[in-house]
Amino acid sequence: MTDDPIAEGAEPVTDYREVAADPRAAARATMMVLASRVVVAALGWVGSVVVARSLSSEEWGQFSFVFALLGVMSIVTDLGVGRVVLAHLIGADRDEIARTASSFIALRTVLGLVGYVFAVGYVVLLRYPTEVVVATAVAGLVVVLATPSHALTVLFQSRHRMSLVAVAEGLGQVLQLALTIAAAVFAPALLIFVLPVVANELFKLVVKGFGVTRESVGISPSRHLDPRRWKPMLVEAVPLAIGFALTVAMMKIDILMLSLMDTYDAVGLYSIGYKFSDVIDTFALAAAAPISTLLVAAWPADLDAFRERTRTAATLFGLGGAVCVVAFWPSAEPLIRLLYGERFAPSASAARLLVVGAALTALIILGIFLLTAAGKQRSYPWVAVVGLTVNVALNLILIPRLSYDGAAISTVVTWAVAVTLLWVVIHRTMPVGGLLPLRQLAVLVALVVVLSAAGTAVVDRLPGLWPLVSVVAVAVLVGLAYALRLLVGVPLPMRRKST
Fold it and tell me: For residue 397, which of 407, 412, 385, 386 has the smallest C-alpha distance?
């Protein structure tokens, strides 16, 4: 807290840069969000099982395609503005913060509308089936609602106050699941299954909209939209926007190409793998949000803290990805058969590869946030250009030969190339050395290979033990990580110190 030196007796003003720099607050926020994402992922998984079992193979493929297309629309709706504007939301000038917040929300709303038009225009111009066009028109409302909703999340993130966001996301997913089950019972049709997702986004937007006005958050967006602020936001975000757009294209182009080069049945089988890999992406993004706030607060005043926080985050992201791979790899086929039914069992190989790809993606997400926090985002687009080129080329070669398995191979190779190039770029452009804990990550990779191979061998001989094999593999991995001191220095959430 700092006093106004001009007006004696004035109210103390909070410097939110100090709030943003609190690592324990960031750890608490991360744990809160991750707990919420566990609930959301579990409920979302149940919902996807209900939908997949209720629709035909072709309809499930169409459902998966529609939401993959809407994911691509984040190229238009995000533009990297959220990560850039974060630096403007911490400070001591409340009026400036309020005006920045309102302008940011308004900009995101406009971008959401533009993304909706692009999505509907895409399926109309390429003459997709009528049912896909109608489903896209309805499901596209998710983009319109989720875009300003994410802007509100960024406001909460800047204060490490993520409890309301976590509750809103959890309850929204409960609502979506309840409506999905009702749709499966009373009207199991493609268009009807789209509506619960829209209801979920509307609920979250309303809850966060009311919550952000609380005095304790310290933002209270202004009533002045001030569109003149949009240009500086967009100009500052242009390099990141280009890189982010290419990254999203790199992530989703496989499903779009599969829909054009193969059948909707192939899209549906391939999308099962994404139901698992998306969980890793979701957790990585959730964890990266508080971490990015810490990095913004540390740059450039405290480079030692910047390095320490980056290394810690990279180790945790690596461990998280490793846990997911060793748990899923041996048990992929029986787990998919249990959840989605026998007709989806052939997708197990592709699903394994997509989970490996998602583990690599976590380090890419961290690298992007790191560059943005340091104002070095201009270095990233070239990495995404190379990655997208590799992905498209491999898909053109492999999809006609191997269908969705070829798309999965393309994805893993692409992410391996991208993560390597990205951290080479970071090493060469950042004035801080030792940001990536290579020894810890190399040890984790070796453990993953050994445990995944051993687990697969056991499941092949004793198929009924697959749940136990996955649990034991995770326990052994985490135990060895602690025994080998890979997690030294990781902060834990604790109570705030009394003032």
Answer: 407
The top-scoring range by mean pLDDT among 40-54, 87-101, 208-222 is 40-54
Residue 322, pLDDT above cutoff 80 = yes
Region for residue 4 given its phi and psi (left: phi exceeds 0; alpha: psi -120 to 50; beta: otherwise): beta
Q: What are phi and psi of 390, to 5 degrees?
A: -60, -45
Q: How far apart are the first and last CA of the chain?
A: 11
- Predicted confidence at residue 234, as pLDDT, reads 67
CA atoms within 13 A on the CB side of 24: 5
Query: What type of residue sits at position 493?
Result: P
Taking CA atoms, 145 is separated from 112, 128, 142, 204, 248, in Å, by: 7, 24, 5, 9, 19
**3-state SS class at 259:** helix
Per the document, the length of the chain is 499
What would the two tokens of residue 402 be? Answer: 């191997």
Q: What is the mean pLDDT of residues 245-257?
A: 79
Q: How far apart are CA 151 and CA 423, in angstroms?
A: 28
The answer to whether the predicted template modeling score (pTM) of the entire model surpasses 0.85 is no
| Cβ proximity of 158 and 293 under 8 Å | yes
Q: In this predicted structure, what is the pLDDT of residue 337?
A: 92
pLDDT in tens, 11-46: 444 555 555 555 666 667 667 777 777 788 788 888
pLDDT above 80 (res 266)? yes
Q: 373: pLDDT confidence band, cut at 50, 70 and 90?
A: confident
370/134 Cα distance (integer angstroms)? 40
How far apart are alpha carbons 329 and 456 in whole angstroms? 7
140, 176, 156: which is closest to 40 by C-alpha? 176
Predicted local distance difference test score (pLDDT) of residue 77: 59
| pLDDT confidence of residue 121 | 94
pLDDT band at 324 (very low <50, low <70, confident <90, very high): very high
Cα–Cα distance, 316 to 31 (Å, whole number): 13
User: Residue 494 CA to chain centroid, in angstroms?
Assistant: 25
CB 83 within 8 Å of CB 369? yes
Cα–Cα distance between 155 and 106 in angstroms, integer? 13
* Residue boundaries of the structural domains of the chain: 13-225, 246-488
Rounded CA gap, 254 and 258, in Å?
A: 6
CA-CA-CA-CA dihedral for 415, 117, 242, 219, to nearest 10: -100
Residue 24 phi/psi, 5-degree rounding, is: -70, -35
Residue 272, both tokens: 């099962």
Residue 110 makes CB contacts below 8 A (sequence gap 6+) with: none
CA distance 194 to 341: 22
State the DSSP code for 91. S
Q: Which residue has the tokens 């070669």?
A: 397
Provide the CA 437 distance to its chain's centre, in angstroms.
22
User: Distance between CA atoms of 482 and 372, rounded to whole angstroms?
Assistant: 31
